[in-house]
From TrEMBL:
It comes from the Bacteria. Catalyzes the reversible isomerization of glucose-6-phosphate to fructose-6-phosphate. It is found in: Cytoplasm. The active site is at E354 (proton donor), H385, K500. GO terms for biological process: gluconeogenesis; glucose 6-phosphate metabolic process; glycolytic process. Pfam families: PGI. It is an enzyme of class 5 (isomerase). It catalyses: alpha-D-glucose 6-phosphate = beta-D-fructose 6-phosphate. This is Glucose-6-phosphate isomerase. GO terms for molecular function: carbohydrate derivative binding; glucose-6-phosphate isomerase activity; monosaccharide binding. Pathway: Carbohydrate degradation; glycolysis; D-glyceraldehyde 3-phosphate and glycerone phosphate from D-glucose: step 2/4; Carbohydrate biosynthesis; gluconeogenesis. Its EC number is 5.3.1.9.
């Protein structure tokens, strides 16, 4: 049933009024953070994460109203409907069961009248056995040598999550297999990978839910041509991960192994399925992949069961809505003070912006409030030396800071200025949110800091596979909770289609020109024609 437009809701109006109050000088963050018990009241600890939102521009009334909004929009109810297999992706008439891919309970999860769990367990077992055979050397390349490099050919949701996890857990990768990502159709991406790898010891993992994505098909063709040129049998060097019945699920095209993904798991939510399972099990070992899944499962259970006021991703979603729709911040940065999390922001960028970058509700009504935020980020302290000037003195944007208490490499303990490198990193992690919140007065306005710039801080005890799973599932749940507030469908992505269609028209024109040098791009818009003519002429 369509929901009431947001601006008609009584609670939305109350929040709008309250936002005016929060804009008053006495509610400046430098005053809010001085309140007794501020940190205790505005922080949560569960499912392996400490979540501190004491430096968000919220008071107790804000939280009370946001929780009323959560109740009105039935966030918990909708989350439960999602994990239980309801066809919540209504525009594509599908369930959204990424949570099932890391469900280790014995409960059935029914979609379309069928328990999906036996199939999910079967694929997990196949992945585990395959990884074991590769690691033991039972399966080798066509010339009998062990695999040393795995190249993931895939784009968007078929690689970003996996890249986030493989970077985050690089310190655990002891299987003597290096991982590479061939996402972009840009030939530089391909050239760079093959310039440093041995074709005899390289395994290509083609990952595509649809197996129709232009970039992935072009890169796969390029890889086949390369193998054939080097005398390598692709049937012994290619693995596929795709949907049952897709063009890639083709028995007439022999491959070393093929694994299925399911239509009820969207690409950007798929790293806990075979999409991440195959490459990550090769890179890290299946056991570590399973530990990562178990961390994600714990966060899913927390998101499903914890009461709204104690629910980390739900509160994070409400704060994000507050910052976006009531305080007017259009962007949010994710700044992990941990280099292994360097690919978290690019992953969340797709996860969140493809899910929530919508202008209509799930029922096709125009939204009366803006959905979605612009997500970006870089690890700290690097970010401090690039765009933090704007964070402190330019247009403000809320930040998620992420800190890790125990680094993966604890053995390096040399001191500079009396502290270890890790303590130096933490000195910055502690200081930046405070500087942003408090600011500093100065008679020289160029040197003044307005402060009142909101941030949250998430802490992890360490970067274990479980904790990476928890962080992943935290951002996934936060994304869908926000979508539930706006009543949008976070599982479709029709907005990526128009550009693809235009590219397809231009591709056809280029193909004609490749066959007939006399062909003119007369059908194209003059501006597009200029670029096509320029490419074919070799210079401007
Ligand atoms: O896995 P594939 O079918 O190749 O899709 C790869 C990606 O491309 C599409 O354009 C979508 O924007 C993404 O959501 C998807 O993850």
């Amino acid at each position: 049933m369509p929901c009431q437009p947001l601006s008609d809701l009584h609670i939305w109006k109350k929040l709008k009024q309250h936002a005016q109050l929060i804009d008053q000088p006495e509610k400046h963050l430098r005053n809010l953070i001085r309140e007794k018990g501020r940190l205790e009241k505005f922080s949560l600890k569960d499912a392996g994460i400490f979540y501190d939102f004491s430096r968000q521009r919220t008071d107790e009334k804000t939280l009370e109203l946001l929780l009323e909004l959560a109740e009105t929009r039935k966030l918990k109810h909708r989350f439960k409907a999602m994990v239980s297999g309801e066809k919540i992706n209504n525009t594509e008439n599908r369930a959204a069961l990424h949570t099932a891919s890391r469900d280790f309970s014995s409960h059935p999860v029914v979609s379309d009248g069928k328990d999906v769990m036996p199939e999910i367990r079967r694929v997990r077992n196949e992945i585990s056995a395959f990884a074991e055979d590769i690691h033991s050397g039972k399966i080798t390349g066509s010339t009998g040598k062990r695999f040393k490099d795995a190249v993931v050919i895939g784009i968007g949701g078929s690689y970003l999550g996996t890249e986030f996890v493989s970077e985050a857990l690089y310190a655990f990768a002891d299987k003597d297999i290096e991982i590479h990502y061939l996402a972009n159709v840009d030939i530089h991406n391909f050239g760079k990978i093959v310039s440093r790898t041995d074709p005899e010891t390289t395994l290509w993992i083609v990952i595509s839910k649809s197996y129709t994505t232009a970039e992935t098909l072009a890169n796969t063709k390029q890889a086949y041509a390369f193998m054939e040129e080097k005398g390598i049998d692709p049937a012994k060097h290619v693995v596929t991960v795709t949907s049952k019945g897709s063009p890639g699920d083709d028995p007439s095209n022999p491959v070393l192994a093929s694994f299925h993904m399911f239509d009820f798991i969207g690409g950007r939510y798929s790293v806990t399925s075979a999409v991440g399972g195959v490459p990550l099990s090769l890179f890290l070992g299946y056991d570590r992949f399973e530990r990562f899944l178990k961390g994600a499962e714990e966060m899913d259970n927390h998101a499903k069961n914890a009461p709204a006021s104690k629910n980390l991703p739900l509160i994070a979603a409400l704060i994000s809505i507050w910052n976006n729709n009531f305080l007017g911040y259009p962007a949010q940065a994710i700044i992990p003070y941990a280099s292994p999390l360097c690919k978290l922001a690019p992953h969340v960028q797709q996860l969140y912006m493809e899910s929530n970058g919508k202008f209509v509700t799930k029922d096709g009504e125009f939204l009366d409030e803006s959905a979605g935020l612009i997500i970006f980020g870089e690890p700290g302290t690097n970010a401090q030396h690039s765009f933090f000037q704007m964070a402190h003195q330019g247009r403000p944007f809320p930040i998620d800071f992420i800190g890790v208490i125990n680094p993966q490499y604890e053995q390096f303990q040399s001191e500079s200025k009396g502290v270890t490198n890790h303590q130096e990193l933490w000195a910055n992690l502690i200081s930046q949110p405070m500087a942003l919140a408090v600011g500093k007065e100065d008679t020289n306005t160029a040197k003044a800091f307005p402060g009142n710039r909101p941030s949250s801080t998430l802490l992890l005890n360490d970067l274990s596979p479980e904790n990476i799973g928890r962080v992943l599932a935290f951002y996934e749940a936060r994304t869908v909770f926000e979508a539930f507030v706006w009543d949008i469908n976070p599982f479709d992505q029709f907005g990526v289609e128009l550009g693809k269609t235009l590219a397809s028209d231009i591709r056809k024109e280029m193909a004609v020109k490749n066959n007939n040098k006399e062909h003119h791009f007369d059908e194209m818009n003059p501006i597009a024609r200029f670029y096509a003519d320029t490419l074919f002429s070799g210079s401007f």
